[in-house]
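Appendix B. Chain record.
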Amino acid sequence: MRPVLPTILCCGLVTAFFMFDRETETDGSFPVWVSTIWFMIISSRMVSLWFGAGGARSVDVYLEGNPVDRNIFLVLIVLSGYMLLKRGYSFSEFYANNKVLTILLIYSLISIAWSDFPFVSFKRWIKSLGNILTILLLLTSQDPTRSVVTVLRRASFVLIPFSIVLIKYYPKLGRVYHRYSGELTITGVAMGKNALGVMCMVLGLFLLWMLRGKLKTRNIMSLGVITTVFLMDIYLLFTADSATAIVCFFLGMLFLPLSWSGYRRYLGTVNRWAAITLVAVIVILNKFFNFSTTIIESLGRDPTLTGRVVLWDELLGYKKNIILGYGYDSFWLGDRIAALWDKYWWMPTEAHNGFLETYLELGLIGLFLLGLLIFSVYPRVFSAISARDGMKSLFLTFFLISIVYNIAESAFKGVHIVWYIFLLSIISVSIMVEAESPLEAS
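Structure tokens predicted for this chain:
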């Protein structure tokens, strides 16, 4: 079958999704569209890559980036900042409610001073601010819940169906054959199988949250749409075969019900530190009994997590700047990345561990600030859901799986979708009104 017909049918299907799910009230304002565009780009792939402008993978290309993507991000950042100022939003209020996050951002900016590539580091820092600005656009709207749902719903209805079309009918865009092994990798609208997997993980948990609300309203058409998109998402999640995303998705399915109204009465007897305590106990037990190797092997995976463990050992050997780090988003540049690419055939561009990545970029000071951010915000995120449902249950789930995801991948910086939902979950606690979402009203 020629790809034109499936593309037209997919466009029709996406249109039908939006038409038949009219029960979900959406925000069509321009600021929400700006946030939608930002989120859909970081959830899929850079705009330049759709037109074959990515170029060959080389150290120089990775260093310089692409001017098309840079200009698009810059326009979105300027628009977001302008609209927030027009709304009269006070950034002193942001500092008052997010002190540790603000300090981490300022320290990241200061770290540019000792970076080997200060201009590149500065550009990447500015780009990372777009996450916060577009999130603030959503959370300072008249109805934050409706605005956030609108962005996630649009991304789900568009990116998931078109990923399937690209995989089946546009192999040059939706599939990649490994340059050395020749192994087929499924990418869909994303830049790789891990990127596709994490997109499906995030959107799948959102759709699961939506499903519960639809079951309560008993609107057959709307329920059918969400169920269909959710099943498509699950298909893509397992097709991508990203182990980290799959594990985090199932953990998210366990976290999500903890704050639903049916379980809310138990929250008073549950230690709000239970989730982090459980993670700590598992890590300690694994240190002595090494049961993770058995679990990983039973899943048909490499016990070294596809070379991650070997890479971690080598990265820990970089001790030039233990206290301060190499500067914000500066470690994987220049001679260092060239040497690592020569040694590792899979050409890593990250540490595949968010905490180790933070240590390399920002040193022990940055790692301390990240830990302080997690432990200072967690009680607030947990306490917020004990009063009312709304999106707080979803935000708590996003917060927890972001931490777990960063054990095997690096996502505590830049324009990574996991960093976005992590920031969304912690900033929302201080901004969003304590109103129940109509999707989860009891």
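Further analysis of this model is presented in Appendix C.
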